[in-house]
UniProtKB/TrEMBL annotation:
The organism's place on the tree of life at top rank: Eukaryota
PANTHER family found in the cross-reference section: AMIDOLIGASE ENZYME (PTHR36847:SF1)
Protein name stated in the entry: Amidoligase enzyme
Record-linked InterPro entries: Amidoligase_2
Stretches with biased composition (Basic residues): 24-34
Region (Disordered): 1-42
Amino acid sequence: MPHFTYVAPDSGHHRRRHDELSTHHHRAGTHHSRRQDPQRVDPPDFRFCVELGLVLRSRKRNHKTVTGLEDELSKQLTRAGIANHLASTHTSPVSSREWTIASELCIPSRPTDHRFGMKLVSPFLRFSKRPESWQGELRAVMDALNTHFELTTTHQCFTHIHMAPASGVWHLDQVKGLAKSALYFERCLDALVPPYRRKSVWAKSNRNNFYFEGLRMAECFERVDAQASFEGVGARMNWCSAASPTGVALGATPGADFQHDAYRWNFCGLTADGLGTIEFRQPPGSASASEAIAWVMLVGCLARLSCGAGGALKPAEKPQLKSLGEWLVYEAEWCGIPHKGLLKDLIKQAVPVTPTPGTLAGMDADAITIDEDQRLRWKANDRNVVLEKYRRLLKHV
């Protein structure tokens, strides 16, 4: 990946340029003929928040309502030493330092079987500054869930990862870099998820949205680069046709196209002054800590690579998952992220995307179910727990 990231000034040692990784016969100590270096700017450290959408059932009690399950879930997490609270009991903004437990409207529940769609939203955690801490916290949460509850992952379940610079504020060039990476590597990332997450109404294609569809990659890049505001980038990345299944479900006026957050990459949360999170929504539900950790590692490393200054992606060249995987693992190694083997395993299990003849790979489904139609309308007015956490976080940054 032709972005560059460099050692921070106080790190005390020299870091290899990332483009050396692609030449496997060179060793770290091999001398190269020197070209003029690009501008050396270290990428930001990131904070992230992960949303775990799962179907849960208690192993001990047959809860008839989601309220009873929420109460038991909160008690079990508390006993495991995990600070948490219920969204349903917080009329004020939820804490950015505790886990939040909430019901999830996009995941169908089965009360007769005592199973309910639930969402657990993490605190905002530092990605590369204290990686052992966030990995340990995810393990503790998943251990408590698997010990006391039956976890089921349906097609509607998810692992959403929100990223924001540790300072709380984005630079426009960083957002543009991540937007171009999202478009360029979409097919590669599609290969890492189950087929149903490539056609999900909850994670639509940015590359084939109403704004970019039919354009060459170079033209997509030009349109991203031409944006003079954070909202402009967000509008292009998340532009939805009023005539699309999502638009029809939401009752959009014909011709009145609009922004919608349910794309693989959600840029809708960015404000005019560079505040907000960028969210990756495509991963399926994580039933284990290993799965959740691998997805966070992938998104965090991709964000760092995308926001590094220097080179640029080459839109005329076809992206390769193998090369992307090498860059991501290298970045994880450089950041000192433990257990990078989980990231390697995620990349190894990739299944190439084979489009149906006559269709574009990654294109959204032509229709949505009646249930999805209803849930899209419900979600339009759902409480944004992550946004509340982010606003609370800014007070402490």
